[in-house]
């Protein structure tokens, strides 16, 4: 039986992904609200092949207005937002039932598993589902925020759901095809002109510049976001992500002293955030200071002790508390001549299908047989 859910999808030039998106969700919901914002490729044709009613609305440089239009067209009792370059995980179909338990003023956060342009897998939680109630709306040009207005006060409570979406929009091919980061940057800068002290927008500006490898610009905006959130960080759920992203930016620029200072502050606030320790390891490797080399296996072992980052609390890169930590321990022990330890950690990493570890294992076996 299908559920009383309207899935709202905004799309523009998504012929590469739209069929997979629609196939993953159509069997489970009563309605698809598909809004095309100006596709020049076969996106609309493919959507109609899936018997989806395609509505057209001209793109106006404002994601919130587009999303609010989609919401206004929804007829079912609950709404779920999806991007056309996303796919519902096959294991999440049963969890869609959780949406139907949401009450007034509540919204559901789902897990987004993104394949990124450096072949890592990033995991985050994003608000995507809520009751179909006119008091819900989106605000902001980009990276828009869902709000619920009651008695002239914005208030909303968030519930983590067992729904997982795979996101393919930040793979290298997709970014090149759609110039996504340039589009995002244009909108973020427009919003920055409207509110120069919007800490979340500053954070997203910094992250977008980081993706574009414009590290000096990224550092500037991320430090501004950090300054605005540091004194009362508990009120800003993205504060930990500012720290992690800024850490990667400083690492790319080899600004080690600033990075070590930042990470020290970070782990004092978030002692269970494995990603911060993994960034520290990468810094130790890149710095190549002989006096610090011995710290590498110690920190990697601590990453394994902490385990994978809790994605209910933080954004994370998959593997920092498991296969990536094992792989890097394997590299360390191989380079220091401890082949059995290297093999042990490569095997642990390879068991989770991490291809670099599988390659190193084969290389070790080949060298041993010669």
Automatic annotation (TrEMBL):
<feature type="domain" description="Glycosyltransferase 2-like">
    <location>
        <begin position="6"/>
        <end position="92"/>
    </location>
</feature>
<dbReference type="InterPro" id="IPR019734">
    <property type="entry name" value="TPR_rpt"/>
</dbReference>
<feature type="repeat" description="TPR">
    <location>
        <begin position="199"/>
        <end position="232"/>
    </location>
</feature>
<dbReference type="InterPro" id="IPR001173">
    <property type="entry name" value="Glyco_trans_2-like"/>
</dbReference>
<keyword id="KW-0802">TPR repeat</keyword>
<dbReference type="InterPro" id="IPR011990">
    <property type="entry name" value="TPR-like_helical_dom_sf"/>
</dbReference>
<dbReference type="InterPro" id="IPR029044">
    <property type="entry name" value="Nucleotide-diphossugar_trans"/>
</dbReference>
<protein>
    <submittedName>
        <fullName>Glycosyltransferase involved in cell wall biosynthesis</fullName>
    </submittedName>
</protein>
<dbReference type="Pfam" id="PF00535">
    <property type="entry name" value="Glycos_transf_2"/>
</dbReference>
